[in-house]
Amino acid sequence: MNNPRFRRWTGFSVMALILSLGAVPATFAGSAGASSSTPPTQGMAPQQSVGKGEGTLNLIAWEGYAQPQWVAPFTKSTGCKVNVKYAGSSSEMVSLMANGGGHQYDLVSASGDADLRLIYGGNVKPINVNLVPSWKQFRPFLQAPSFNTINGRHYGISYEFGPNVLLYSTKTFATAPTSWSVLYNKAYKGKITVPNNPIQIADAALYLSKVKPQLKITDPYELTQTQFKAAVSLLKTQHPLIKKYWDLASQEISLFQNGSVVAGAAWPYQTNTLQAAGAKVADTIPSEGATGWADTWLLATNAPHPNCAYKWMQYVSTPKVQAEEALYFGETPANTQACAIMNTLQKGGCAAYHANAPASYFSTIKFWKTPLAACGNGKSNCVDFTQWQQAWTQIAG
Amino acid sequence: MSNGARLRQRAGAALWRRPWLRGVLTLSPPLLWFLVVYLASLVTMLVTAFFSVNSLTGSVVYQWTWSNFSQILTQPVYGSIILRTLVMAVAVTVTDALVALPFAFFLAKIASRRWRQLLLAMLLLPLWASYLAKVYAWINILSDKGVLPGIESRLGLPTTHIAYSNIAMWIVFSYLWLPFMIVPIYGAFERVPDSLLEASSDLGAGAWSTFRWILLPMVLPGVVAGSIFTFSLTLGDFITPLLIGGSSSNFIGNAIYDSALNGGNLPFAAALAFVSIAIMAVYLLLARFAGAFEAL
Fold first, then answer.
1. Which architecture characterizes domain A56-162+294-359 according to CATH?
2. DSSP-derived pairing of the beta strands A242-246 and A192-195
């Protein structure tokens, strides 16, 4: 240790350490984050009319949500140039909005599991649904769903939704599996894939709600400590059967294409892509039902281009854009008038994506929402999102 | 003489008389860049490791806490992630060293000039190809409908299922970082004079003795220098585990990625980054004592 060069290094790192320790209390003391039981932006009055466009619109969106075939006509008619930042997960959307992005972006196409986090974080503000005429054509349950409407305030406008399906190889399964138990079956060890996402715990909970009624699970997102533990331990027994936890839809597609897996939890988008490529796969919603997503365009609290944002919400709610989006991504539009257009764009398109399905179809889907400590029953003994995330790290680590 | 020219002359004279001023003026822009852009961001990151986030809204809570570090230390999953990363980095480094030593020796001491140029070109050529393309190529080789099981079934051998496992990661990492190991070892072999090898064999030493007692001590700094690359590149990687890893293949990098991007928990990600930095600092100190920096 008597090497002079080494001593210089040490001195330098000690200096850096002192600097860093000294800087903290001075800069950040006292400003703690807070969350409350009412959304911080609840009192903000939404605008009463849509003025002239600001010329620009900045979006955070899922990939496939801002395709040129419907963005170009929008820009042409409104003069709003659209910039898109794609996000890979609901949580990425929340971190983009929470970490300063809220001053830059106008709208975010968040799913139900991110909505409440954005609303209670004050990142989004109430909107005036009367400024979006097509909203009246929406399915009733998507006009004011609990994941984007609180105390009668709408924080955004619903977009499209879909189920998480059981994707399987038709070579292995001659007939469609009728139960999610396939994903927990040791017979398919090393041939299974599920998303690398904490919300996957809800899938296990949904399955348990049917096969273990004694747990009394009524909502897979509102789990007591006992119910939560049962779901987590089911997923831990599933771990040895998993070939890979997928992070991107494209990963699951190649896992099926190169024959590494025979069954997995998926979106219809993967099924469409695989079938179009000639892969021998199909998907199904097993008897236990399915989780799913319902997306909402939420308006940022500090949206720099609110008029363009309202114009976009008006535009993407129209039957034509809803139909195009539904066919492109493989999901179901909120607007009931989109069905006819889907059929003209693609033969049988409306039925293929359940745009004409009866209400009973929708009740089979348990839509993603943020797990909160406060359960729906007025008690606050449920497991919250942080614990979901930590448990998932333990499962997939 | 104009005013401007006089001023310039006086400034020049002042600089000539005071060498320290010359030094300060030349060094301060890069030093400032280093301090502000490089070190300040690093310090900011390390400070962030002592904060936490509001779990619901994802916003950072600026209150001093050790909770991130106690979580890393107490939850067994992080222990196994760190251990997995470390073991892989060591395994890849050892594999690359074992492959690189004979290759570099052939390159430096046996191959003719033409062969040497050809081999060096082939060695460095993959560095021009995209990292992702190479990993995807390996997926195509190793996966169940891939090249390797195809050849195995042609030959009537039992087929292997290597893709999406830690073995696949080990193969891909060893492949990816091999040039970074060969080049410094090749340099070290070049510096060994041929006369030493001749003297050794004249004095009756066999091939192994010559290697063990003459060559290895002389090229060891080269091996350590190469290992800095293979070790640190493996330690910091998260893409290969993501693409070709299996169900238990998360690295420290993946845990950072998950907590920063998916979890929105930047403070925890920063705390995990601390772990990587600490491991690397220890490794560099050890490498320094092994004389690696003289061989670079």
1. 3-Layer(aba) Sandwich (3.40)
2. parallel
